[in-house]
Amino acid sequence: MKNALTVAEKIDNPSSQTSALSMIADTYGQINDPKLAQEGLKNALAVAEKIDNPSYKSSSLRAIAAAYGQINDPKLAQEGLKNALAVAEKIDNLYSKSDALREITAAYGQINDPKLAHEGLKNALTVAEKIDNPSIKSDALREITAAFAQINDPKLAQEGLKNALTVAEKIDNPSYKSYALREVAAAFAQINDPKIAQAILQQTRQKLEIIVASRITTTHLQWELIYLLIPTVSAGIFLLVLLKSRSPLNISLTGQLIVVFPEEYVANLVLLKKRMKSEQRPSWYIQLRMVQEVLELILANYIQIPLDNLGLPSIRRKIDK
User: What are the sequence ranges of the domains in the chain?
Assistant: First the structure.
């Protein structure tokens, strides 16, 4: 393996070098000798750190981090992941950094030692907090909070999620802040301590309500209405066209929505509305929340997914001409 690593270090092509490093890292991850595996991955990490291309460096780091997660020695695994995290933090490209951070976070979640896992995730959270892009920061928080929830120690999990909650509150963009807070709330729900989960979920729900309510203030009411009116009308027209084209029959609104959206999504919308009514939420709050949820479904199912698939070959087009 040392010879293979020496050869990989001399490869000029970054793509080929990354492939070689990934294979070497995977092999070290399967070695039933923690010290030998840790030493080999440490050398592989040194080679990966010298890669200039951020995307290939991130790919190499992801493979190395996954291998560290397989080492059957919590201390050695945590030490190696700490070094990998230091390398990932230096990546300039935010997307590449986020990809590496996600894999490192997942590897921390596999460490079978609550204290070491908590310490590692705390370091990962510090790196995520420094990310300026609210979307990328929100995605990073999702991974970190999910890993915190898997820690088999309610107090440590609670402490870590509270720190994640603090970071989420500092996100400037209201939409991404709301998304991050919902992920934190979901993570708290997984903690094996219902009292802790219930208390924090209540706090998180209040913060979400503040975000929604703050977007409709007396001073900015006219502008907020205009801001909401444009996408709402557009979405309404778009939804109407879909319903007319797909469902000419005279059926209920729920039935019509099922024609447009997956049935489980519609069921969640119905349950959400019933819950808000049972909680005696104001009508404007219910309407705004339902509009927000429907818009997110439209954007996800009919805009974002098609955009993501633009680069993929269509069944109507030949891949090779």
Answer: 1-112, 136-214, 221-307
